[in-house]
Each structure stands twice: as structure tokens, then as C-alpha cells.
From TrEMBL:
Highest taxon, organism lineage: Eukaryota
Region annotation Disordered: where it falls in the sequence: 102-128
Organism of this sequence: Cyanistes caeruleus
Designated name of the protein: Transmembrane protein 51
Keywords: Membrane, Transmembrane, Transmembrane helix
Length: 128
């Protein structure tokens, strides 16, 4: 039951991260493609583009797009790390359970060997 909850949260984290990443990319592309804005504006859809150093177009929308892409990548990375950690923990738990089964099976096999290897003798006090 706890494993299914963990998987559900990993899927949700992945979906949110992927959605934020795609939304950020769409916002960045929307600003760069000319022709989607009003006819009086040359260029993309940004509200007030400023020319920064090096001719890079900067606006509030680009900042939001960068934040969305970064947050989406972080969430995807977090989901991946949590998934790897859970897989590792699950394999360790299976290995421990396997070792415990082997350890618990060995004493019963030794007892069976002892019973079959001992001669069938009775206690001298009980012989009459």
C-alpha cells in the first residue's frame, strides 16, 4: 500500500515538472516568434521588450519562462532521484528478505540431518 502511494507521488511530481517545463518552453517560443502580437509591435509577444547587453531580448515573460523551465527541470530531476532511491531500497529489502529466508531454513535442515544421522537409541532410564 505504501509503495503504491510512493509511485503515485512520483508520477504526480513527474507530471507537474513536465508540465512546467513545456509551459516555459512554449512561453519562450511565443515571445520569439514574430507575428503573434499586435500589428504596432515589431517582433514577438513580449509586453515591453528591452534590449539588454549583447542584444539579448529580455522581458518579464522571458523571466517567467526561464523560471518555469528551471523549476520543471528541478522537479523532473527530483522525481528521478526519488525513483532511483526507492528502487535501490526495494532491491535491498528483497536481498535482506532472501537472506533471512535462507538463514531460517538452515536450522531446520540441520535438525533434519541430526535426526536422520543419530541412531535410534532410547534413554537408559526409560528402558525396562
Amino acid at each position: 500500500m505504501a509503495q503504491s502511494r510512493a509511485n503515485g507521488s512520483h508520477y504526480a511530481l513527474t507530471a507537474i515538472g513536465l508540465g512546467m517545463l513545456v509551459l516555459g518552453i512554449i512561453m519562450a517560443v511565443w515571445n520569439l516568434v514574430p507575428g503573434f502580437g499586435p500589428p504596432d509591435k515589431p517582433g514577438g509577444n513580449s509586453s515591453k521588450p528591452d534590449r539588454g547587453s549583447g542584444g539579448i531580448l529580455k522581458s518579464k515573460t522571458f523571466s517567467v519562462a526561464y523560471v518555469l523551465v528551471g523549476a520543471g527541470l528541478l522537479l523532473l530531476l527530483l522525481s528521478l532521484c526519488l525513483n532511483v532511491r526507492d528502487k535501490k531500497r526495494q532491491s535491498e529489502d528483497l536481498a535482506i528478505a532472501h537472506v533471512q529466508r535462507q538463514v531460517s531454513a538452515e536450522p531446520s535442515q540441520q535438525e533434519d540431518r541430526m535426526k536422520t544421522s543419530l541412531p535410534n537409541t532410547t534413554c537408559p532410564a526409560t528402558r525396562r
